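In pairs, describe these two lines:
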Amino acid sequence: MTLSRLAPSFVFLALFLASCADEEPIVPEVDPKDKFIGTWNVKEEIGGSVTGNYPSTVTKDSTNTSRILIYNIFNLGAAQRVQALVANNTLDISQQSITGISIAGSGTYSGTGFILNYTSDDGSGAQTVKATYTK
């Protein structure tokens, strides 16, 4: 066999080997809810004054992949919870009633914790609450 007849085979072999080169590694997708999950220390302020310090637990909602559950919001008890939708570093609490108290608001994750700004209304008038969640 002459070299001119082998040349197409070498070209094919070179292209085949080049196509087998390592590809970029696949980076697993990170769940944006993960950073909110855990047990938190909450410092609660109403009107600029600290009104409470208490623990809160945040878990994933098993019935909705975009939602988390925030337990003991407004220090209403460890079994009481609100649902919050998560998108990237923000969360949204649509109006919900827990033990007769209406709660609605939003929050933002930054650094190592998050801040919730929400209103609570037991029927006697709404209060604006700032709750800082830290570990």
